[in-house]
Design a protein that fits this description.
Elements (H helix, E strand, L loop, with lengths): L3 H30 L3 H27 L19 H28 L3 H31 L3 H16 L8
Helix pairs in contact: 1-2, 1-3, 2-5, 3-4
The chain binds MU-OXO-diiron.
Length: 171
């Protein structure tokens, strides 16, 4: 059985994962509005992956005999200054999520809840990927700068993510 504290912390994390999905959906809509359909596809794939993250937590709480309680999801921004600004915001968000996952691990260890500690290790590894993929796009966008041709190419590259089924993450 999960402790009340652990259950509350995981319920808060479920809300954070659902917010992540909502935020990435908002980023996808922003990219649609500026004709970056590849980047919009990348963000759409990310939004779906966040739903998987939330669902994994929900299943875990249920498996441990706990109770999932859904909370209101905060309104995400709807505008960003540029493509780079959007991906920088995504990277910053993932860094924040990583620190939330780390805090959950610390709580599980404080409570000697080894099952939750073990379960959370999937998220610890996933956050390495989450940060790395956003950071890679940020680096490429900085290299591209104001080049229209470069932007066209990266949009095509980002669009390929939506076409390839996720295998190494999100499951
Ligand atoms: Fe669910 Fe992007 O962390």
């Amino acid at each position: 059985m999960l402790s009340e504290r652990m259950q509350k912390a995981i319920n808060d994390q479920i809300n954070a994962e659902l917010y992540s999905s909502y935020m990435y959906a908002a980023m996808s809509m922003y990219f649609q509005s500026v004709d970056m359909s590849g980047a919009a596809g990348w963000m759409n794939a990310q939004a779906k992956e966040e739903l998987v993250h939330a669902e994994k937590f929900m299943n875990y709480v249920n498996e441990r005999g706990g109770r999932v309680t859904l909370q209101a999801i905060e309104k995400p921004p709807s505008e960003w200054k540029s493509v780079l600004d959007t991906f920088e915001a995504a990277l910053k968000h993932e860094q924040k999520v990583s620190s939330m996952i780390n805090s959950l691990v610390t709580l599980a260890r404080d409570e000697k809840d080894h099952m939750t500690d073990n379960f959370l290790q999937w998220y610890v590894a996933e956050q390495v990927e989450e940060e790395a993929s956003a950071a890679e796009v940020v680096r490429k966008l900085k290299l591209i700068g104001d080049s229209g041709g470069g932007m066209f190419m990266i949009d095509n590259e980002l669009g390929r993510r939506g076409l390839v089924p996720e295998t190494s993450s999100g499951e």
